[in-house]
Amino acid sequence: MAMSMAVRAFLLLLLFLSFTNLSVSLYEDQVGLVDWHQQYIGKVKDAVFHTQKSGRKRVVVSTEENVIASLDLRHGEIFWRHVLGSNDVVDGIDIALGKYVITLSSEGSILRAWNLPDGQMVWQSFLDGSGASKSLLTVPTNLIVNKENLILVFGRGSLHAVSGIDGEVLWTKDFAAESLEVQHIIQPVGSDAIYVLGFVGSSQFDAYQINPKNGEILKHNSAALSDGYSGEAILVSSDLLVTLDATRSKLVIISFQDGEINFQQTSISDVLGDSSGTPVLVSSKLPGVFSVKVNGAVTLIRVTVEAKLEVIDKINSVAAISDAIALSEGQQAFALVQHGDGKIHLTVKLSHDLSGDLLKESIFMDNQRGLVHKVFINSYIRTDRSNGFRALIVMEDHSLLLLQQGAIVWSREDGLASIVDVITSELPVEKEGVSVAKVEENLFEWLKGHILKLKGTLMLASADDVAAIQEMRLKSSEKSKLTRDHNGFRKLLIVLTRAGKLYALHTGYGQVVWSLLLPNLRKSECEFPTGLNIYQWQVPHHHAMDENPSILIVGRCGRGSDAPGVLSFVDAYTGTEINSMDLAHSISQVIPLPFTDSTEQRLHLLIDGNQHAYLYPRTSEAIDIFQREFSNIYWYSVETNNGIIKGHVLKSNCIQEVVDNYCLESRDIWSIVFPSDSEKIIATVTRKSKEVVHTQAKIIAAEEDLMYKYISKNLLFVATVAPKGSGAIGTATPEESWLTVYLIDTVTGRILHRMTHHGSQGPVHAVFSENWVVYHYFNLRAHRYEMSVIEIYDQSRADNKDVWKLILGKHNLTSPFSSYSRPEVVAKSQSYFFTYSVKAIDVTLTAKGITSKQLLIGTIGDQVLALDKRFLDPRRSVNPTQAEKEEGIIPLTDSLPIIPQSYVTHALRVEGLRGIMTVPAKLESTTLVFVYGVDLFFTQLAPSRTYDSLTDDFSYALLLITIVALIAAIFVTWILSEKKELREKWR
Amino acid sequence: MAWSCRSKPVVLVLFIQLCFLFISPSLAISSGSADGYTIHGRVKIPSLGVKGFGLHGKISNIKVILNGGQSVTYLRPDGFFSFHNVPAGTHLIEVAAIGYFFSPVRVDVSARNPGKVQAALTENRRGLLEFVLEPLREEQYYEIREPFSVMSIVKSPMGLMVGFMVVVVFLMPKLVENMDPEEMRRTQEAMGNQGGLASLLPGAAGRS
Questions:
Q1: A404-429: average pLDDT
Q2: pLDDT confidence tier of residue A772, bands split at 50, 70 and 90
Q3: Do A320 and A307 contact (CB within 8 A), yes or no?
Q4: Which residues, listed in sequence order, are joined to residue A755 by a DSSP beta bridge?
Q5: pLDDT over threshold 60, residue A13
Q6: C-alpha distances out from residue A142 to A191, A212, A324, A479, B37, Å
Q7: Residue in chain B nearest A963 by alpha carbon
Q8: Which of A308-322, A332-346, A350-364, A397-411 ranks highest by mean pLDDT?
Q9: B85, A837: Cβ pair inside 8 Å?
């Protein structure tokens, strides 16, 4: 019938249209709606101010994250920034010619000049040398040779003179043969010569006088130090050095005036009186003065013209001393910072007259920032022609602050540039009594907002309107509330930084909710404290709802893996430390067990270096729960250096003098030894413990078949390479390198699958999810990167598919799923080319695991690419059948596509990218992605689009209008039909 | 560049290198010191303007990466870059620039035959005669909002609803009118039995 056909056609059209109008990617005006990006630089190592009278005032810094950056001195914003390679460590920075930032990096072998205003690299010089030495960069202000400003660099045992204009190396003088351990390069004011000062061996001091025009040695003097030296030599004036002797009991003053080297030794106790601690020279450049630090107290000592020592001041609890800066009338000033009663005291003194203070300020300081580590000062002329000072201070938590006129002008949380570990925590539930978010402020505002949005949709909005819409979207107060939301978008990201500080970031805009400098990683008895990991300690739900969740921070005191561990328990809502423990044993592994006690505290097993296991929390309840599951606990350990993977079980309580019920001994149950001459472990990956798998069955529609995914929490992916291929690309030929991958069951040690890629090498980045592994490696034959996928299916249940058997009850249920039963598995694999180097790989996680998965690939360009898992499907073929196409199988191509719109980070870069973390939101379609490195980036992703919620740009107004229009139309048609009926009846 | 030379083969190498330099100025590889060679190259982005400002950013933010991060360098204002102390072997150079897609480049540094350039784009296996890297394409990270059109309104669920209504209200009577009276009566009878027009639609939907 024509009519019903028309209806059907229309409905089909409707269906079709509703599918085509979907898109994955982002519009430019949606930037910042759900994502945020924060830029950091890391802990500042060195800072140079550039404050001319005109123009922008800036400070150029180099940091421990290998960043060089130019910061706005007014607001602390980044003008420009470069993140150098990880093995291109910055040794020194300075400003030359008033327009170039000069950086020396890579152990004194690469010298670069950057344009000060915009950060464009102007030139780069490679300085060659044969030895290894300290790297020194000196930019003399008045050394002009042949109309060229010289830059003096000492690196790799050679002295180089480089032209400041174009980076040309003018001359090189090699000191490697003399095995000189260089201490200083100076060019005294009014002198034509350059002095190179250093030690040879343990007890010889050498001074070279060098002609700046050609690098010839004018004069060379050396003298033997009778008692040796220790540590650094401090330059006090242009002809005096101070150092300590080898026993650190005497101060040695070395004068090298006019080529004459003289020593003068003074016992420290004579100068300082009685002192018991080890004296350390403070390496601050102060004219005529040096400082010795003993037991935290600093003594300033002046060296008089006759090389006499004169104690001028003794200051207790000094945190940092700056270098001296030149003031207007030939005076020099320096700053020192002290701590006291929650404040920091900044004092600026004149270096020749220490009695008076130029400036004394006390500034209240958040004690979560810790101690002051470094201070840099800069002066300016006030309106009354006196000197004003600004001080840039670097704190223990790596934050950077600018102090001026007794206040903090700006601060930067640069500790966040070195994140070690991340977990998420839920926010508190909205309490009753607290009004459930005023629906909307008032009706008028609401209407106005929606009219604006409607204008936007209809493209009628003016520029102002667009800005208003943008602001409205960004400022929706919903986003930054400190309570749990229905969709689970609001969470706390708890991050542990290298400085040993915890930050809780809100997922809304990344604002810091609380921060905590972990007290037990700062103790004086704890040398080289390192924070290792964070774990969920207590996640209250059900019966312990009233308690706040808490987290466990595991760290260690010391550098080696055998150093004793420390534990800290922190409240996730308030950031206060609940409890802390100093452990007697080391920590090599932390295993969160899937059991919780009555207060919802999770049981954790800590494994030490001797394969003893310790149970935490140390309560009798925990041990009761643990005893029940005693025989079901298995774990494995990987010894990368020896090429051994071992499986362990618990044996009995520890045999010690003191009975400790919480200490358990373990025994090995299996081990896999990789032959050391052909295989070297480079990567091991397991599934995430929190991953949810929706279904075990995979329907293969094309063959009307069903396959069972082999889903086991105990699978380990191991990648090994040939020892020759374990270096960087370019060091191995395809013939001598191969990559072998294994899937190992960690309970039984059974190898389920093994595959070799010939002519391939690492680095391997892999991700394990559900029943598949995706890994990235380098193919030497094609000289391209490759990504491979392995999917593993359970064959033992293949019989269960028969419906008749199921009905008759004859299906095979007698073999329960167990790691012990010999699995009949089948693995499918496929490989594809991938363009870029990869820094990290992760996979999206959703609440129920229904939503399809995307791989998140952190590329070498510091971007994150979202790649649908369907591109890595072993069932892809060149010509898929019609049925396969309907199933969504993509025709096989040799390389994986890079679609620019699918970059999660869109046009942004997450500089120094190190890790990607995903957490599911409560809404099944959505997952939260946090990317960290030097920068931080957060966004929400919907891998299968937001099928369960309306998008943000959904126009409610249009919906209302449509409804009104429809209702109106109903009335109109009703009236029309009434009339028509009436007419019919009259007829 | 520092022309320091310590061993004899290197002197020879340098000599050959110098000869090559005079012949062709666009050579990419030269030997620097005993333990490595230097790779020189150039990145050229046609659409990048005179001042160095392109569509997406500045030339100063472009990084050139050797062997997946072994060393990282930046571009000079004229687009030149260089890697020093590169050992002989086959290397991979990548260019990271926001807004442009660069193919990684395979570079052969030969110990036996220094100065010989062998560079090829790995994406399309095209060899490079000169060591000049150009983007394969520009990258657009955002969807472009389509300008307002009637279609977009019509396509939206609300538009479809309205459209469907319009069809039902205005086209259906037309269809009914075009039917011949005999059939019409039959239909009306059928409708009377089934309960009107409304019952017809779900039925149609169910069948489609």
A1: 90
A2: very high
A3: no
A4: A741
A5: no
A6: 10, 12, 19, 56, 35
A7: B158
A8: A397-411
A9: no
DSSP, collapsed to helix, strand or coil, labels residue B145 as coil
The whole-number pLDDT of residue A21 equals 35
Residues A424 and A973: their CA atoms lie apart, in Å, by: 56
Strands B36-43 and B132-133: parallel
Q: In the prediction, which pLDDT does A111 show?
A: 92
Q: Which of A89-98, A215-224, A580-589, A655-664 has the lowest mean pLDDT?
A: A655-664
A656 burial level (CB within 10 Å; 0-12, 13-18, 19+): exposed
- Which one is predicted more confidently, A23 or A351? A351
Contact flag A969-B92 (C-beta cutoff 8 Å): no
What average pLDDT does this structure show over A111-132? 88
What six digits make up the tokens of A155? 């690196």
**Nearest CA distance, A676 vs chain B (angstrom):** 25
CB contact under 8 Å between A900 and B101, yes or no, is: yes
pLDDT at residue number A197: 85
Mutate to test the interface with A, among B80, B109, B142 (most CBs of A within 10 A): B142
CB A496 within 8 A of CB A534: yes
Write the residue in B52, B109, B162 that is nearest to A962 by C-beta.
B162
What's the first-to-final CA gap in chain B, in angstroms?
A: 76
**8 Å CB contact of A126 and B1:** yes
Region of residue A634 (left: phi > 0; alpha: psi -120 to 50; beta: else): beta
| Percent of chain A whose pLDDT exceeds 90 | 29
Which site among B50, B141, B172, B178 would you substitute to test the A interface, given the most A Cβ atoms closer than 10 Å to its Cβ?
B141
Average pLDDT for residues A667-684, to the nearest whole number?
91
Q: Which amino acid is at A443?
A: L
d(CA A273, CA A311): 10
CA distance A515 to A446: 36
The 3-state DSSP class for residue A358 equals strand
Q: Do B141 and A900 touch (CB under 8 A)?
A: yes
Residues A282, A297: Cα–Cα separation, whole Å: 11
Sketch out chain B's domains with CATH numbers: 8-138 (2.60.40.1120), 150-196 (no CATH)
Contact A728 B68 (CB under 8 A): yes
Q: What are phi and psi of A355, to 5 degrees?
A: -70, -40
Which of A607, A652, A606, A600 lies closest to A630 in space, CA to CA? Answer: A652
**Residue B181, CB-side half-sphere exposure with 13 Å CA sphere:** 0
* Helices first, then strands: H and E counts in chain A: 8, 65
B157 in contact with A at a CB cutoff of 8 Å?
A: yes
- Interface ipTM above 0.90: no
Q: What is the pLDDT of residue A420?
A: 92
